Amino acid sequence: MARTVTALILREMSTRYGRSPGGYVWAIIEPLGAILILTVAFSFVLRSPPIGNSFVLFFATGFVPFGSFQTLSNLIARSLRFSGALLSYPVVTWVDAIVARLLLNSLTQVLVSYIILGAILSLQADPVTLNLVPILEAMALALLLGLAVGTLNCALMGLVHVWDQIWSILTRPLFLASGVFFLYDALPKMAQDILWYNPLMHITGLMRQGFYPSYDADYVSIPYVVGVSLVMLFFGVVLLGRYHRQILTS
Q1: Cα–Cα distance, 166 to 24 (Å, whole number)
Q2: Do 181 and 59 touch, CB atoms closer than 8 A?
Q3: Which residue among 66, 80, 88, 184 has its CA within the 20 to 30 Å range from the CA of 174?
């Protein structure tokens, strides 16, 4: 399995990043560009960010975990499509395809996050006191949730051909509802009661807790995020284990 996964990783590295000018540079430019656009747009509307003094750091601490989740879940959801031709060989299984994408893109997202946040921190005029525990927890939860959602969607997209479009429509408000550019604490009580059930709201709050010592995200529930992720991952694995041959031939 290790040799098969390694071969799939090398294949994806050469096809996804090796054929485009700039290669891996785009993995850094895309999230950085989104953060800068948010910074410029909101700096005209607000005098200061909801917490701290830097718009760039505030949006980065929300967008980085959200972007890691979104990128990983989208790529894992299309694992069988991407490696469909190779899955006809007995030595290559659907588990190999998902594990390869998980390892490569998790490492990529961690490295990209480190570069972006490190660059922003190095340019800050005021020193920032970091708490690494919640930062690492937030990134781990974002990747776990991305794996769970991606695995479940991988099965559903293969079984329900319009699920890709349905999921795209359902998740369009997700960027607005995940605490990327606002704090959960500043919302009305009714909105809090609804958005608490969004696991990404917990992840962005946990990430900001690591960058802002004065911010106490007491609403964050790590067991809730882990539980939701494991339930979705369980159903995704069960569906793929039972129907992966049907998905590959459909």
Answers
A1: 30
A2: yes
A3: 80
CA–CA distance, 102 with 98 (Å, rounded to integer):
6
pLDDT tens digits, 167-223: 989 888 898 899 888 899 989 999 999 999 999 999 999 999 999 988 988 999 999
pLDDT above 90 covers a percentage of the chain that reads 45
Residue 248 Ramachandran class (φ > 0 left, ψ -120 to 50 alpha, else beta): alpha
Predicted model pTM: 0.90
